[in-house]
Each structure stands twice: as C-alpha cells, then as structure tokens.
Amino acid sequence: MRVEQDGSLGWKKFWLWFSIGSNLTMLFMFKYLDFALGDSAMVRWMSDHNATAWIVELGKYTIPAGISFYTFQSISYVVDVYRGQEKAEHNLPKFMLYVSFFPQLVAGPIERFGKLHAQLFAEYSPRWEDIRNGMRLVIYGLFLKVAVADNLASVVDAFYSDHTAYTQAEAWLATFYFTFQVYTDFFGYSLLAQGSALLFGIHLMDNFNKPFISKSIPEFWQRWHISLSTWFRDYLFIPVGGNKRGPWVLAMAAMLVFFTSGLWHGANGTMIAFGVAQGLLYLFDRFVFKKLDFVGGHFNDHQGKLPLRRRLWDGFRTVKTGFFFMMTLVWFRSATMDQASEVFGMLCMPGYIGCRLDGLEGIAAPTLAHGLQIPLFLCIFLLLDLWVMKDRADVWLGKFSMPIRWIMYVAMAVSIWVWGGAINHPFVYFQF
Amino acid sequence: MMAWMKDIGLKMLLRLAVGIVVFFVANFCYVNSGLYLKERAKFSPVAAKLDSAFLYGDVVYLGESSNTSFNPWTDTLGYSVSEFLQMYLPQNRVRGVSHDGYHVGLFSQMLGLMPEHWVNSGRKTVVITVNMRSFGPSAMFNGNEASNQQEAIFYSHRTALLNRVFVSLHHYDNRDAREMERAKTQWFRTKDLRLKVVSKQLDNHRESNNTEGNHYGLTNTGDKSNSNGEGWYSHNTVKWWLRDLQRQFAPVSGDADLARVMPMAEAYLKEFAFLLDDENPRVKALKEIVEKCKREKVNVVFVLLMPNFDHANRLFGQELTQLMSYNMDFLRKRFEGWEKQYEQGDFKVGYVDVQRAYGDWASGHHYTDQWYPTEHVDAHIRRFIAQKTAERILEFQYRDRIQTGVTKPMVPEIKPSVNNLPNWDIKMPLADTCLDSWNGFATKHLR
Q1: Is A265 part of the annotated catalytic residue set?
Q2: Which ipTM did the prediction report?
Q3: Does residue B254 sit at the A interface (CB-CB below 8 Å)?
C-alpha cells in the first residue's frame, strides 16, 4: 500500500526495495543460509551458543513448502503495484489468499496478481464445463505423475543411488528417463493444479507447451516452466537490459537470469551448474548456432509445405535441443558435483563398462528394474505430447465422442490403479 | 442455486456411479488374472508368510530381527526364538514371522490378516515382541519406515484393487529419509529428558544409595536440583548431550580405542535417550493390539525384550540407564495392568519380562551386535526367552484345559563353555576391550 500511496518517487522506491528485500531475506534465511555459511567458523561458534543456533538450524529443518514460488509471486505483486499496472490490495486476507491459493501454492504456476485476484473475488457460479474440464485435467495429470513419472523414477532412483554399479548403457537410459521423469512429474503437477483450480472456476496459466518440439534453447525456455520463465523475463531480464542494448548486455542479462534460475532451483553447486549450463547453451544458440541456419536452406512462409532439407534441419535442431537439455539435467539430478562428474564420465567415456567387472565375479550385479509398463507409458506419452495432442488435454479429450472418451478415461484410471509407480517419489518441484 | 446444484449434482453422481462400476470390474479382472497375488508377493513378501502362519499355526510369533539374529563367531546354535518356542511347545504348531526393523505398530496392522477360523476359537495365541528401543525417535523416524508402511497396506482384507491404489497414490506414512531425519532431529532438539521427581522420593533414593537397575521410574540423582527437590542431569535434550560428548572427546581424539567407541556411544544416546508417554504412537499401537485381540478373542503374549543395559551403563552410567529403566517400567505397568484386567474370561493377555525373569541385566557379551545397541542376543538368551514365553502360553492352555497332559520340551542342550562365550580370537573384537579405555576417558572427562 505504501508503494502505491507515497507521493514521492524516492519513498515509493524505498518501500519497493524494502518489500523485495524482506521477501528475499525470508527466502535466504530458510533456503540459502545453510548453504552460504557452510561449515565456517561462524557456524561452529553459533552452534556453541544456543541463543543464535536456531538461525542456522532454521534452513536445515524448517523450509516452508513452496517458499520459492510464493516469494516470487509476492515480489511480482509489489513490482506491478510500483509500476502502476495493478492496484494495491487493502484487505490482508484477500492478499493472503492470492499468495496462498492452495492448488498452486507449493509448486506454481507462479500467477500474476492481476489475473488471479480478479478471478478469486469475482462472483462465483459453478459451471459444468469448468468442473468437467477440471476433472479431465486432474485425471490426465495423475496419469502423468503416477503412471509415467513415478515409474520412470523407480529406474532413475535406482541408478543414482549407486551409479558406479551400473553400465554405460544404463547410465544413458537413466539420463534419458530422468528427462521425461522431471517433465511428466512437473507437467503432471501443473495439470493437477490447473484442474483443481478449475473445479472452483479459477483458470490458471499453462506452465508447459510441448517443450520437446523446441528447435533452440531460447524457444525451449518459452515452452518449459512458462510461469517462471516469464517471471524472470519481466522482473529481471528486461529491467537489467534485456535485448535492446546490444549483444553484450543481452549476454550478461541472460547469464544473470539463468544463474539466478539455477540458484532458485536449489542452494547447491549442482543447481547453479545447471543454471549456468543453460545460460551458456542459450547464448550458444542465440549467437552461434543461429548463424548455421542457412544449412536448412532459404524458406518463407508463403511456400506452403516445408522442403525436405528444412524439415531435416529442423528435426536435427529439435533433437540437439532436447539432447543438450537432457545432458544438463545430470547436474539437476545429481546429489553432488562429484556424482555429476562421475555420471558425465560414464556417459562420455568411450567403452565405459562400470565397475562391475573389476574383480567382482560371482557377485550379482544390480540391473535396473525395468517393467514393460515403463517404456510403454513413456511411448504413449511421447506420442500424445509430440504428435497427437494439438491442444491442452481437456480440450483435446473433449473432441472425441463419448464412448472413445470414456475408453480413454478408463485406460488412464486403470493405468493409475494397477500400474502406478510404487516408489514413493514426491513431486520433484516440491523441494523448491 | 438449486438449479445448478441439480444439474451438476446429477452429472457428478452419474459419473461417480460409472466410476464405481469400472472400479469393481477392474478389481474382478485384477484378482482373477492372478496379478494381485503376484503384486502382493512383490510389494509385501511378509503378507504371504502371515497368511500361511495364521492358516497353519496355533501360536504365531511376530518378531523383529532379534528373533533370528545370531552371532556367526560365538553363537553356533542358530535357532531363532520362534524355533526354540516350537521345541518348548511340541503340541502346538508355532509359526514365526519376523523381519528386520518391524515394531508393534506393524504387528498391530498384521493382525488385520487374522483369518476367520481364528476368531473366537479361544485357543489361538499371538506372541508380540516388544522392543523398547523401537518406541524411540531413531526407530520411529527410520528412513525405511515408508517401505514398511507400504508393505503394511497389504495386511488387510480390504478390496484388492484398493490396496494397489493406495500403493500407487502413496496413501500411507510416506515420509522420505530426509523428512524422517528432520523429524528425528526436531525430537532430539526439543524433547525434554529431565525426569522430575518429588523431594520425598528423591531423598528416599539418596538415602538408599541405589545402584543401577533398582530405581524404577522415580529417581533422578542428577547433578542439578531446585528448591522443590526436583533433580536432573546436565543434559536436557539429546542434542546437548551429543554436543557435550563431541566437545569432551575433541581434546583426546587421537585415541584409537575411543575413536571406535564414539560412534557406538552416539548410537546409544540416539537410540535410548527418550522418555515414553501416552502420546507415543507405538504405545497407542500396543493398546490397539489388545483391543483387536480382545475383539477376536485371540490370546496375546507380549515379550518385553531386554536392551543392552550393560553397555549403556559402561558408556554413560546412570544418566542413561535411568531413562531406559523409566521406559521399561512404563511398558511393564501397561502389561501388568492388562494382565490383571483380563485375568478372568475367554480373552487373556500375558507378558514376559525378559530382564526381570533373567534376574538382572545380561552381561554385554550376550549381545551379538557389540558395536550397536540392538537386542540381538545369543542362543543362551534366545532359548531363555522361548522358555519363558512357552511357560506363559502353557499357563493359558492349562487354564482353558486345551493342554492337559505333561508337555515335554524337546530342546537341544546349550553348552555355554563351548558355543556361547566370547571367542577372543575372532577378527572383530567384542566391545569390552575398547569400553575399558572408554571407562578411563569417561571418568576424567564426562560430566
């Protein structure tokens, strides 16, 4: 309210930064303090003095669920008010409802105040269309999470629990599976959030838009975790320079965004490495790979069907983008930098066969448990996501006749009931 | 408002009805295709053993690892407690079901698989092993607990597909290792270890100059006391106790023997430094077991296992053993109460207090895990537990005239001098040698 009401620009700025600072301080205290202090002398001193030790232990033991998400949501509200794009909410409970609206509280999508607030306090009248579409999103979201992601997780977890015991081929398999585990896990959660909100007549934004058909990393990030990408674009990338002040400023801004994004994902070296790698790939695609576009031949929109050369080139770019993203996820999944280095070594070293032949004859080598349902569900999902579904799941399902639709509902329900992944694997993004 | 409710409500009900029909059709296919049995065996291997035990057994012994653990170096007689029990009860069919890390919370759920022919039979008995350590935070917030709870979904006669749905949707206490660690640490930081006593009791205790093992739940001769006569030791939480231990160890950390004992000392604190109360979920599980058995008229015998008081005492003296004794007494009081309450009638509760029946603490060398505070004991004590349990069961059966003749045990003789004394030539030495070094250290440094 101060940001909106104070007359002078100086005071407005002061309250803006005060608000952003207090939000970030809370985030820092809970999420990053432990990482920042490490095992320094200060920590040892603090742990010897009970009066202050709680500050260190705060982050270790009591990270509120979803703090990264609603901190960003609060910051976007204050900045929008400062910019005059939104009016300040004078009613505290209403503001709190905006921040803590349950379907998107723990893992997004990070909604903007203007869009969510208007819906939350509009007159409510249940519509069958909303409820029906909400249920469709929920069942498809559950299918993605329980039948696809959790099954993939059983293989990935087994590999990362003791990666040295496995072969190079299994390392590739686990890396490939993790790419789609994290996608279906988070996409599934986003659909569940959208579906649950829709049951109450609230429309949340789409968080994914077929990221694996992207031809470059910049395009990928326009399709992956859209609410976070657009947040960074509006509140960090553009304010620090964006793409209007030349290539150097753009490069710096992009690196800052991806570094911050990595840090946002988690307070450890692997997440920062993931962010920095994404930033470098972004710049590579934007400044280097773009120059190779002539390989695909000249093409304009009026030509109609794409020539074969262009289609092959686009296909190569799509595979390349997916491949690079998959490789950076090794950092995302690894517990430590050492583990990430070892997994990269396994993946890239020609002829790597793991340690299972190092004089361990007679000891049964572990193999990645691999039920038939895992590749089957993954193939079904890829088929749907990359080629078949042209719209969001609820709209797409609505296009079929009732018997076909119900066959699909039953198939999804039975997949969840009978072949759901048994390993307890919380939503990947809950940890952030 | 009513209009939309009518419209939407009807559509919802219709879909719900179709969903229920689909569910039961799927359940029919799931069971009759044999998939359920296959998955049950995969997710809950113990469930099939329980089925068999309840089907063929007169006495079912539900135990944890102490049932079967034996020391490969010193313990040449590898019979489990339940096998010894069968030898003591030749006229009964004894079936043992045991698994590492099981506890009364799981045993309570296992009773959900009791078949119909057990109900009201009046002659069936379940034996429940009670491990005091499993009531503490280290066991309760164990990283493996989620998989135990997943298995426990199948300890029930509910609709088969519903069990599988619960597995898919993780409908159980599914906290992962990190969350469990957080809960455990929270407990260590906040739970008060001070036993408050009234002045008269404290004075009585001081006058009698009691030694270990004889101060059941009332005493605390700690180094602090207030004007009300309440006394306590320096450490009010596990966290501070551990911190003190580490700080006091730091100046002498070069000693190899002490370096070996330190992890053991920490483990003893983490496993035994807690105080039981009525809110403890495992204490509540005990009550549930009694309620279930009472409902089904199945006799129950609790076997209160004997923790390694000897090593605990050599590590921390009375400060730790008094907490252990308090907890043991807490459980004893419950069992004695139930025993008395159900003395008459069709349903009976028995209890075997291994420690008291043994007379005193068993010497540390009877424990097969020398470096960790488990209740795994050698054949000598395993046989003793079986003997006392059998006596209790026979008492019930003679009273009900299920047994009338003389029961002649068929138990092999154990010669302690041959196979149950410590073998000092083994590669992994017993903890005693290092504990002697610890003794000097503790005298000098520990408060």
Answers
A1: yes
A2: 0.75
A3: no
Look at residue B405 in the predicted model and tell me its pLDDT: 67
Q: Using 50, 70 and 90 to split pLDDT, how confident is the model at B208?
A: very low
Q: What is the mean pLDDT of residues A33-56?
A: 57
Annotated active-site residue in A163, A225, A265, A425: A265
As a whole number of Å, the end-to-end CA separation of chain A is: 29
A420–chain B nearest CA distance, Å: 5
B186 touching A (Cβ < 8 Å): yes
Phi, psi of B367 (to 5 degrees): -90, 130
> Which among B239, B275, B276, B262 is positioned nearest to B372, based on CA atoms?
B262
Distance CA A123, CA A139 (A): 27
Report A:131-190 residues touching B (Cβ under 8 A). Answer: 131-132, 135, 146, 150
Strand partners, B304: B130, B353
Residue B169: exposure state from Cβ atoms within 10 A (0-12, 13-18, ≥19): middle
Q: Does B38 touch chain A (CB under 8 A)?
A: no
Residues of chain A with Cβ-Cβ distance to B189 below 8 Å are: 57, 61
Joined tokens for residue B228: 């009300």
Contact B183, B136 (CB under 8 A): no
pLDDT on residue B280: 92
The per-residue pLDDT for range A202-216, each reduced to its tens digit, is 899 999 999 999 989
pLDDT of residue A353: 55
Integer Cα distance of B368 and B71 in angstroms: 5
Burial of B275 (0-12, 13-18, 19+ CB in 10 A): middle
- Residue pair B299/B347 in contact (Cβ under 8 Å)? The answer is yes
User: Is CATH 3.40.50.300 the right assignment for the domain spanning B44-136+254-445?
Assistant: no
Average pLDDT estimate for B306-322? 88
